[in-house]
Amino acid sequence: QQQVKQSPQSLIVQKGGISIINCAYENTAFDYFPWYQQFPGKGPALLIAIRPDVSEKKEGRFTISFNKSAKQFSLHIMDSQPGDSATYFCAAIGAAGNKLTFGGGTRVLVKP
Amino acid sequence: DTAVSQTPKYLVTQMGNDKSIKCEQNLGHDTMYWYKQDSKKFLKIMFSYNNKELIINETVPNRFSPKSPDKAHLNLHINSLELGDSAVYFCASSQREGPLHFGNGTRLTVT
Description:
By secondary structure, chain A is an all-beta fold. Chain A is built from no helices and eleven strands.
């Protein structure tokens, strides 16, 4: 039972384009939604995170959009660069516990 | 300077052997974790320790035994290794409900 579903599994985008990754969750107790970025041979690193009291959060070229009623959230990478090529994971955690549940990951390739 | 360090980076061993992976964090965090990343990149939590106390123990074969000598260290011992144990194992740490900081992983290959 996958509590956080992520799509697409892979994504190819041209330099300068927009990368969009979507996630959906089931557990309404989740109240913190981070995104992690993982480069080959490295561990995941926190990229940006959002709480459900806001509908959007932007940090540089990265934006999270959050739709609480639909239980969906997405990551937009604006002006995608070859250095953004990595695997991106959405995740969710609830206040009651400290078990971060990850989506299945999206491998993003930005072509120059 | 590495915040979460784990050793070894690569581990190649034969079926039936026993092996350990070590993890240390210098961030002063009170919670440490072990995650397993399979060949499809799926990340799944295995264990979590808070101040040396086991708080999360997912459905993991009892061949896997975590040990936390102090809150800065969390080691993973695996007995009787099987082919299906081949994966990348990540150690992570966090402070209470803060973000997770991951190590760079240990790639375990069982032949």
